[in-house]
Amino acid sequence: MSLSFSDDMLKEVQRIVESYPQGKQKSALIPVLHIAQQEFGGWLSTETMDYVATLLGLKPIEVYEVATFYSMFNLKPVGKYMFEICQTGPCMLNGSDEIVAYIYEKLGIKPGETTTDGMFTLKTVECLGACGYAPMMQQGKHYREHLTKEKIDTIVDECWGMLYKIIKNKIFPLGDRGYMGRKLLLEKLTLKASGSMSVPP
Amino acid sequence: MEFFGKTGRSARYLVVNADESEPGTFKDRYLMEFIPHLLIEGMITASYALGSKCSYIYIRGEYAWIVDILEQAIAEAKNNGWLGKNILGTGYDLEIYVQRGAGAYICGEETALLESLEGKRGNPRIKPPFPAVRGLWDCPTVVNNVETIAAVVPIINEGGEEYAKIGVGKSTGTKLISACGNIKKPGVYEIDMTISVEEFIYSDEYCGGMANGRKLKACIPGGSSVPILPANLLLKTAKGETRYMNYESLADGGFATGSMMGSGGFIVIDDSQCIVRHTYTLARFYRHESCGQCSPCREGTGWMEKILWNLETGKGKMGDIDLLWDIQRKIEGNTICPLGDAAAWPVAAAIRHFRDEFEWHVTNPDDAQRRNYGIGHYANPIPVPVTA
Amino acid sequence: MADEVKKEVPARFKVTIDNITIEVAPGTTILNAARQIGGDVTPPAMCYYSKLQGSGGKCRTCLVEVEAGSAADPRPMPKLVASCRTAVMDGMVLKNITSERVLDARAGVVEFLLLNHPLDCPICDQAGECHLQDLGYEHGKEGTRYEFKRRTFEKEDIGPYIQLHMTRCILCYRCTYVADQLTDNRVHGVLERRDHAEISTYISKAIDSDFSGNMIDVCPVGALTDKTFRFKNRVWFTKPVDAHRDCENPKCCGKVTLWQRGDDVLRVTARKDQWGEVQSFDGKPGWICNTCRFDKKHSNDWVVEGPTKVSRHSVISQGHYIDMQMPKEIMPEVMGGRAPKLLMDIQDISEVNSVDIGLLPGPATSKTFEKKEQ
Predict the structure, then answer these.
(1) Fewer CB in a 10 Å sphere around the end CB: N or C, chain B?
(2) What number does CATH give the domain A7-67?
């Protein structure tokens, strides 16, 4: 099996398993799937799920059953940043439809689609429990609330900024402060930031 | 964890239901995000009373950052000796763990929650046996909401009788209301259940009135699954009495002219909104969240959504309204868990009180695409029935 | 549940269902109590299977009204209860077919179950022994009010023995219990949720284990059918006979029903009782292994015991009246003295029996029975 968690992650899995009585490690399935999704590209491939099954000593089908049941597990590849817009009652009252329309206008993606550069995925979800702060969406671990068109603009820019940082850190692993970092900075200054992804200035 | 085996008795568990997903409800989030120690303290007290040595908080998966907050609070409690082994020298051990769900409204149902906590699909169990007899890993389990467990703290501190002096009638104590929708100040409010609905919506202390100078059209007073009420039935009961924000008064008139306190999710709808569209979004929600285990809910929720979509987009027929009524009637009460009822009630209440608006959508399909029905007669005072 | 009610309660519980009183053992479910009475009083059950632990409660066809909860607490229950998963109490009074509420709710459930059902009975191998057909016939209403496209699924191949038609599935979960309780490795399960829930292996894996064939027997509809019998014949054209063999597999009971056409064994199934469930022998459910079911398709593999008594299930019993004689003397009377011609053996005339249908790779067509030049 080619996939495997890092040692830190394995420790985390161990910690989770230990929070249940002995022999009840199946309970750890949902938390471990969360970790796996985060570690292996934001979605659960069959390979990932099989790995989780071996890790917890479960039948693969038990993992598939659970992974397909819960809406937070993505079974298909998603973009780097996922906008999960709530569209249930209270958010609808406060204009979630316009936000979805604006994202289509701005990024050209409809619910369920990903931008061609693999950067953004738009998903409409049901109530996220932030009705008083509507319209809202989930982006990564956090909620983005009281959405307006301007706020969407800011969030999109922020995502680009974050990606830019990640790419920069990959090229200059020690950052600007280290000697190697400065050296690399000088050496690679002329390099394009990335092969496949376009980075705005 | 071996001590369960050593004592030779079957373990008991306290599980806190923090899978808050009812549209309109976000009070537990407030409690956990800003005063997590209230919940932890309540859990310690309740676990001690139950004799549970291991308690779980099942939190909805989307509240990912709140998991960190709770885990930090648990660590703080442990550092102070309020959790862990031999708490405050009493010899009582307790561990609290936070379990994250992964996006399923149905896991708010207690047996589905336990299934999910066991690492399975969130399919509600068939009751009996109830969780108190056979719950988590077949052991006796108490499942309670965050707000309930948090309320343990003031009840213990002040004494039950003292706490019960707050409020009125059977609605004693305080209640968290999460207000949202078209109001000026959405948010979580703690009320003592003596104020009127009118005061709650219009006073600056609470919701601050309708947003954008609009008029009140309707309101769902207890989370999306309870019946919606038009403005005239919301502020006054069918008998013409003032309606108060408490269990009895909100339920006055039964489902015919009343509603329920439910989860305290107070959704206010103004006159620029379309009830058909709103009902459609709720039907879509319940379809999306149905676990698909029992046939009335699995098939019925999808059917209702499709019919409501037709009505909303101007493709509906007059017969569809009666058909919707019949479908919801056949779902209600015939399912394994209350999700079937929760899916049926909003549709039933919308048809009961807003039938004209549904009919208008059928008779004026083009108009319905361009504008909303408006406030109609829903705010007109209702004639007080003359009783002998 | 039997342990909870042990001491202070009587040894037998008195239950009244539709005004018929019966005494049953404590811990019996309402459905099983009704089955002891039998007849129309018995609620239909699509998902409950007495031989599979944990089954039941899902389809909601067996709902009954509780008029009095028990002798100790005679209050009625507000909701209809699932009779397959509710244990009886002493002095319980129940209404099944005498309750308008139950009949109405049941008609609703039938409508829901048929909502997305493809109604492809004419090409379905289960037709004739399908519980959903019976249910629709007995408890359903004419026509449907559903005007939308019916749900479809991607087709999945689950191996050489079992054919999966997900569109026909009613999600009774019985097959998952079979896989859990009879086989050592479950590779299929219920995926997705809401009305997208489906039986699948997720990765199109072959379901392959000694007892997997029993899923076909427990499936109440045509979702799981025998691939080796696919399109070979209609069940009502075949003749069921009881047979047995000494099976090497210790868990296999070896007592089966052979579905024959002429001398050909077209299909082998476990023996079913009057509720459509696998019969028990010596207190043990008579599950059969895949070797008996799929590989022993010759009459000389088996010791035939005699014709199967088909008691309940609709069209299969047509033409198989045991111990009945054609009333020959009446026919000329009815037909004005003319001798009836209709008693010809259609199978003989068409020479259907000259072809070993069991060996045909696909469905039989008219070409199969063409008279060959001599």
Answers:
(1) C
(2) 1.10.10
- Report residue C207's pLDDT band, with 50, 70 and 90 as the boundaries: confident
Give me the phi and psi of C9, to 5 degrees please. Answer: -95, 155
Q: Which of B350-364, C258-272, C351-365 has the lowest mean pLDDT?
A: C351-365
User: Which residues in chain B have their CB less than 8 angstroms from residue A22's CB?
Assistant: 1-2
Please tell me which of the candidates A28, A72, A94 has its beta carbon nearest to residue B61. A72
3-state secondary structure of A19: coil
- Let me know: does C91 contact C70? Beta carbons within 8 Å: yes
For testing contact with chain B, the best of C144, C146, C195, C221 (most B CBs within 10 A)? C195
Name the class of domain B13-157. Answer: alpha beta
Distance, CA of C53 to CA of C69 (rounded, Å): 25
Please indicate whether, in this complex, the C-beta atoms of B298 and C63 are within 8 angstroms of each other. no
pLDDT tens-digit readout, C43-70: 999 999 999 988 988 999 999 999 988 8
* B335/C170 Cβ within 8 A: no
Domain with CATH 3.40.50.11540 in chain B: 13-157
Chain mean pLDDT for chain C: 83
The tokens describing B7, both together, are 């004592």
Residue C74, domain extent: 13-113
Q: Are strands B141-145 and B13-18 parallel, antiparallel or unpaired?
A: parallel
Is residue C90 one of the residues assigned to a domain? yes
Contact B10, B140 (CB under 8 A): yes
The tens place of each residue's pLDDT in chain A, 201 residues long, gives: 578 888 888 999 999 999 898 888 899 999 999 999 988 888 999 999 999 999 999 999 999 999 999 999 999 988 888 999 999 888 998 889 999 999 999 888 999 888 888 888 999 999 998 888 889 999 888 899 999 999 998 888 888 887 777 776 766 555 555 555 555 544 544 343 433 334 343
CB within 8 Å of chain A, chain C residues 165-204: 185-193, 201-203
Helices within chain B (DSSP H only) = 3-7, 27-34, 36-50, 64-79, 110-117, 146-158, 160-164, 197-202, 231-235, 247-250, 254-257, 275-289, 295-312, 318-331, 339-363, 365-370
Residues of chain B with CATH 3.10.20.600: 167-270
Q: Which two tokens stand for residue B237?
A: 């009961």
Interchain CB distance below 8 Å, C171 and B288 = no
**pLDDT of amino acid B4:** 36
Residues from chain B that touch A24, judged by Cβ atoms under 8 A, are 118, 137
Contact criterion met (CB < 8 Å) for A61 and C192: no
Q: From the CB of residue C68, how many other CB atoms can be counted at a distance below 10 Å? A: 16
DSSP three-state, residue B333: coil
- Dump pLDDT digits (tens) for B286-310: 999 999 999 999 999 999 999 999 9
Question: Nearest CA of chain C to the CA of B291: how many Å?
Answer: 5
How far is the alpha carbon of C195 from chain B, nearest alpha carbon, in Å? Answer: 5
Q: Examine the fold and report which residue of C192, C226, C260 is the final residue of a domain before the chain moves on.
A: C226
Record the pTM.
Answer: 0.86
CATH class of the A81-192 domain in this structure = alpha beta
Q: What is the pLDDT of residues C79-91, one digit of tens each?
A: 999 999 999 988 8
Spell out which chain A residues touch chain B, with contact meaning CB-CB distance below 8 angstroms: 18-22, 24, 26-31, 33-34, 62, 65-66, 69-73, 87-90, 92-94, 125-134, 138, 141-143
Closest-CA residue of B relative to A139 is B62
Whether B62 sits inside 8 A of A128 (CB atoms) is: yes
Q: pLDDT tens across C247-259, in order?
A: 888 888 889 999 9
- Note whether B278 contacts A: Cβ–Cβ < 8 A: yes
Say yes or no: A64 contacts chain C, CB-CB below 8 A.
yes
Instruction: Please tell me the class of the B275-378 domain.
Output: mainly alpha
Chain C residues within an 8 Å CB radius of A62 = 189
